[in-house]
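User: My collaborator sent over this chain with a note saying "see what the structure looks like." That's all I know about it. Can you take a look?
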Amino acid sequence: MKKVVSNDSLIETSFRTTELIEEFFDVLDYETSSSLIRMEMNVIEFPIFSKNPKIKKNQILKYYFSKDKKSFLEIVPPVNEAIPNEFDERVFISLLKIMKQKGSHKTFYCSITDIADNLNVSDSTKKGMYSKIKGSILKLSKTSYSFFNLFYLGPLNKKIDDLITTPLITSRILTLKDADNQEKDMFKDKRTKELYKINIADDIYNNITDKGYLVFDSDVLLNIKDPVVRSLYT
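Assistant: Without extra context I'll predict from the sequence alone. Here is the result:
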């Protein structure tokens, strides 16, 4: 302890020995768990999925993020459909889980059973959801998202000042009849009547693979039943 007298005031100055310990934090260490997924930053930050249960079909939503209207997100649903909702968000999370299981490739194949199995629902309710899941895949493929002066680009570590219009995914529903020789091998199980060829949209996938994502436990996300609470959590 050192005491210094200055202008009739007594100032006490203490000295201590410190030690710096450096540790490397690698998020990949945590991705060994099958339930951990990468969520794209724009999907986390913006209202990609409607929390309004009363949203109507054929309604285009436009969200402004500046008073001069120079930053906005416009969501255009498919014809005679509403914009993606809470259930579609759960299907999208399921697809991200499957993408990881398939090696995190931009394009992958899965069955409707695969999607249902990854939704974390009881076996008694899965089959009743198949048609709803199919409709959700089509909706996610056909809904257009336009980001103006808003889209976060991970590799650049900033929002970019131009217009990006993209879906979340594109998809193709394959039957044995339509499959090529390599795809036919996926139909060896005779119970498989259809396969989904899922392609994560370029700008979304680029963020998922390069600095534009956060890691979340998909089981935690899917077990949060209230969509508003899930949004707050992310």
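A starting point for your reply to your collaborator: The mean pLDDT is 86.
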